[in-house]
Amino acid sequence: MHPIAFQIGSLTVRWYGVMAALGFICAMFLLEFNRRFAKVSKDQCSTLLFLAMVTGILGARIFYVVQFFHQYKNNLWGIIRIDQGGLVFYGGFLLALLSLVVYSKIRKLDFIRVLDIFVPALAAAHGLGRIGCFLNGCCYGRATTLWWGVKAPAGSMLEEAAGSLPVHPVQLLEAGENFILCVFFCWLLRKVKRGVTTGVYIAIYGVLRFFNETLRGDNVLYAKLTPAQWIGMLLFFAGCGLVIFYQRKNDEEQNA
To answer: Fewest beta carbons within 10 Å, which of 129, 191, 198, 229?
Structure first.
């Protein structure tokens, strides 16, 4: 958990930003690798990625600031300091989704297939982003006595928030899950038809996020669940519904 990658004079480069940049590069490679399944050009692919990145970061930051606004009441300047961490995946996902819908409609692209090719790229970028969270000390786990517990370095953001007890390395757990999902969805994209990949991703991520939240130590409970757990349940049912809908639709088109 060392947030600073290196310093050059007054310029400070943080690991959070480095991992975000690596996530963008990895997503770009995976979209190029899979773009033929959505019949999008190289230029369209680049534009889609740029839109998703910008709106995703904006949405993730807005969602975080709204959820933890008490941290910024006396530090409004900190709202724009995303280099210090503080992004919520769901917020980024929703705003990026909206931008992809609008662009696909303007360019007359198959929006559902565009989402399908974004799934592996999203999983990889999300995994790298979670490693950035671990190095930054944000999105931390609750205290644990298990062998995998990690202690925060003295004076770090995590020590200030969680104390000196070992905590679950929930960020690394989620990173590993996302890397496995990336490989799985690169394979699944080639095996199933339109919409199924997206539905399966939404359902699986909803389940994983619900479980991961039980290990988190930085969230407020609402009716005994965190906001992410409530959303995770909705995502699971929505994803299952999409899989059933598109599987039936694809079968009907095949039999027509």
So the answer is: 191
Cα separation, 254 vs 256, in Å, equals: 6
> Which residues, 6 or more positions from 160, have their beta carbon under 8 angstroms from its beta carbon?
none
Count the neighbouring beta carbons within 10 Å of the beta carbon of residue 103: 18
User: What tokens appear for 110 in the block?
Assistant: 């198959």
Structure tokens given for 177: 């899950």
Cβ neighbors of 96 (< 8 A, separation 6 or more) are: 51, 52, 53, 55, 56, 59
DSSP SS3 for 57: helix
Residues facing residue 167 across a β-bridge: 143, 150
Query: Domain range for residue 19?
Result: 4-255
Count of structural domains, the chain? 1
131, 190, 202, 32: CA torsion to nearest 10: 50
Query: Amino acid identity, residue 68?
Result: F
Query: 3-state DSSP call for residue 97?
Result: helix
Lowest mean pLDDT among 4-13, 82-91, 219-228: 82-91
Question: How large is the average pLDDT for residues 152-163?
Answer: 69
Residue at token pair 């039980």? 214
Per-residue pLDDT tens digits for 27-62 = 999 999 999 999 999 999 999 999 998 998 888 888
Q: Angle at CA 187, nearest 5°, toward 123 and 57?
A: 15
Better-scored residue on pLDDT, 104 or 155:
104
Q: Cα(first)–Cα(last) distance of the chain, in Å? A: 57
